[in-house]
Amino acid sequence: MSKIIKTLTIAGSDSSGGAGIQADLKTFEEYGTYGLSALTTIVTMDPDRGWHHNVYPVDAAIVAEQLKTIFAGGPVDAMKTGMLGSVDIVKVTEQALKSNKQTNVVIDPVMVCKGEDEVLNPESADAIRDLLLPLATVATPNLFEAGVLSGLGKLTTLDQMKEAARLIHQLGTQNVVVKGGKALGGDKAIDIFFDGSEYLVLETAKIEPAHNHGAGCTFAAAITGGLANGLSVKDAVVKAKDFVSAAIRNGYAFNEYVGPVFHGGYRLEQ
């Protein structure tokens, strides 16, 4: 067997399996990599309360111990963050990345759970912006997160997405993907990639029914897998768009509240 390619996710747990650390590890496996994980938060969804989300951060000291364990094997080939849960966890993550000289860093600045529209912890969002974006090879905010990070507020047009990507790039990340997905009007699911000089519009036909729970996490994890396998940032993003589109096409209705993507969709379609 050739060299083992290692990938890392620092993220929260989604018990339903569609998003979070579960989505990341499944995606890493589909990319042929050895996935490692540091758990930051536990998220539960209550079917008796309309699928209301409860978020329980892990103690930052325990996150630090997990990262110490992981990096005892040296830097990984690529890594990503997801829901971090507290300012202290963001600081622990920053320290681990710096002290281990980690490269190929994908920062998915998770601020809300799907179906929610309030920043879970505004101080954490600020810490991600100030401490982690300058370390990022790629940042992958969705429309809501891009609006917060850029200061533009609600984004509703392609031009606004481009401007948000430009402003987020100025915060220090090398590349930006603004994940518009199905949120814009029209019949296309649109994302924007910006490398500091050029924009690339990524679009596919919208998929109905849209079983897209976990699509954002999966997109970022797929970029991570591509980088770990030696793809350029642009090529990793383009492949990740195809990967997540296939995952949505092969998604299913978990229950009356949520329909997750299926992470093996891309492989099944090949």
UniProtKB/TrEMBL annotation:
Gene3D superfamilies membership: 3.40.1190.20
Known catalytic reactions: pyridoxal + ATP = pyridoxal 5'-phosphate + ADP + H(+)
EC number(s) given by UniProt: 2.7.1.35
Keyword Metal-binding: yes
UniProt xrefs under InterPro entries: HMP/HMP-P_kinase_dom, PM/HMP-P_kinase-1, Ribokinase-like
Taxonomy, superkingdom: Bacteria
Classification of source organism: Bacteria, Bacillati, Bacillota, Bacilli, Bacillales
Protein family according to the UniProt entry: Belongs to the ThiD family.
Domain Pyridoxamine kinase/Phosphomethylpyrimidine kinase residue range list: 14-261
Organism encoding this protein: Paenibacillus silagei
A single MF term (Gene Ontology): pyridoxal kinase activity
CDD domains given in the database record: HMPP_kinase
PANTHER family xref list: PHOSPHOMETHYLPYRIMIDINE KINASE, PYRIDOXINE KINASE
UniProt feature coiled coil, ranges: none
Any one Pfam family match given in the protein's UniProt record, by short name: Phos_pyr_kin
Protein name, as recorded: pyridoxal kinase
Keywords: ATP-binding, Kinase, Magnesium, Metal-binding, Nucleotide-binding, Transferase
